[in-house]
Write the structure tokens for this entry.
Amino acid sequence: MMRNFIAANWKMNMTIPEARQFLHGFIPTVQSVQEDDIIIAPPFTALYAVANAIQGTNIGLAAQDTFWEEQGAYTGEVSPRMLRDAGCQYVIVGHSERRQYFSEDDVVVNRKIRATKESGLGVIFCVGESLEEREADKTFDVIKREVEAGLVEVSFEKLVVAYEPIWAIGTGKTATVEQAQEVHAFIRKILYNVYGDNADEIRIIYGGSVTADNVDNLMSSQDINGALVGGASLKPESFSRIVHFKKDIS
Ligand code: PEP
């Protein structure tokens, strides 16, 4: 059976002492979880400290972004190789906040994904439509374009796709299970076109105002294989409850 993938995106939050304090409360509460993957994506500055604190636990580490070159004169940038060196197993690529505030387009996203995979790291590849696009009935066109463009010359191993409707990120508006399920099934179909049966191995996770209160409902959907969690991942209690989601199969 496929392992669910539950990831915390801390965004530009958490100093090193704050991250350590979070982990002090969080680690003991999730030690018993063996069947799912738990990942934390701190800001760059806290990566190494978090890597040390989670050593020997069932928690993995991700970075929130990367550059596509391996090294050189790129002031301010960090390469996949450096992230691996700092202890990361995954990198989030294509988050809508990167696309929106830093003008990252599909070509840039694809370059970053390829560089990340080449360095041996896994990718959490984010796609999602804006409210205007949804209202204009363009959701499926946008998702198709982003998924296909992002995955040019990308292999299926260690690939996680995150469906994150932009209108649901940080807004408190969650997609309904039906809305999420519909897009996840559509993404799965595209992945079958690209990878054939190997697409079975790719987790498709949902992100957008996931909380301790709505996670059970979302995770009960057949095609939702995990969650990418922003705001609700900043408190050990709420992220722990999310990790301990219960499938509602009634
Ligand atoms: C995110 O940033 O990936 C996210 C889903 O944020 P939030 O949970 O706060 O909506």
The two ends are 20 Å apart (CA to CA). The first strand starts at residue 5 and ends at 9.
